[in-house]
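Title: Prediction job returns without error message
Component: structure pipeline
Severity: low
Priority: P3
Assignee: unassigned

Description:
Job completed but the reporter wants confirmation the result is attached to the right record. Sequence as submitted:
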Amino acid sequence: MTDALIFILSTVFVLSVVVTIHELGHYWAGRACGVAIDCFSIGFGPPLVSWRDKRGVEWRIASIPLGGYVRFSGDENAASVPDQDGLAAMREAIVRREGEAGLSRYFHFKPVWQRAIIAVAGPASNFVLAILIMAVILVLVGNQHGSVTVRKVMPNTPAAAAGLQPGDRIVRADKTDIKGVGDVVAYVSLRANLPIDLTVLRAGKPVHLTVTPALVENRDDIRGKVKEGRMGAELATVASLQKSSLASAIPDATLEVWGMIKTIGFYLGRLVTGQMPADQVSGIIGIGHTAGAVAKASTEGAPSVSIMALRLFFNFLVLIASLSVSIGFMNLLPIPVLDGGHLLMYAYEAVAKRPLRADFQAAGFRAGLALILGFMLFAAWNDLNRYDVFKFIGGLFT
């Protein structure tokens, strides 16, 4: 029961922070463009708590804390882009009710560039949140800087086949500088069956080795069963934490977040092309398990409540930053119902000088919704297998 409670509370907290920031991006962009807003909801379903501000916006905390939304006035179309006939009918109703001046308050009658800004503001807010979090971490904790040395090379492994030797100092993987063991692990894990040009220092001289990591199934307490690239070498590091100054924190953090974005894009590309197994796709269960595991790891063995709180704070910051980048990136994919899908429709409207036909919008919306729901079910199935839930349930009846 305790583990289940930690799982639920951690999941709700992490998702609520990331989703709220995402929706606030849409909200503030809409406000800046003068769009009337009916409702801002954290969660879906019936409201648990609701109130109205002086602008008439209803703020809700809803009963299903797995998302959120901003509803602009007059936004009754599921795809948020009515066709020409729908716009004409909407225009007539608004003019009859509020006069010509009332049109300027409604999302659908804003210039297409303003609607695009409002759409992109959600993912952009996620990236800004991640940058701010990373800036705080870089100022208070710092980033790892040091050297990585090969301590041992396992026989019959990609590292052995590449000629890696104990004592080699790894300084670069392809064009990526190596500053710690974590850099090597992160780079290699995404590149199973993909040749990597390792630059090592051997007896003080640079040597180039080509290693092709093997796809290996591993397991840990946080990620469960994962399949990732491994080269078969035991590494040691001599590193220190270097803090960023207040002046360099934002640029340094921006580079960190850009690295996360490139990593997600690279992994997604390998996944789509079949170079990585699809059973590694994770979803809401995986997020919850990770959040719960991070919470448990942060509290176990803490010598005091203050140390425990500090661990929770920083570990959750890192998790929120990572999740925020992922959600921002995924929302920019050109899939109907996502922000990227809206941007695609706005691009068509900007070129064609008219919105996409209603039947095309409806078909795209249904296809996009089916794709997203299918992806969620597939990810949930993967998560249940990754954490051996089916084995656990089967064991209850044996």
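Comment from assignee: result matches the submitted record. Residues 29 and 118 are 5 Å apart (CA to CA).
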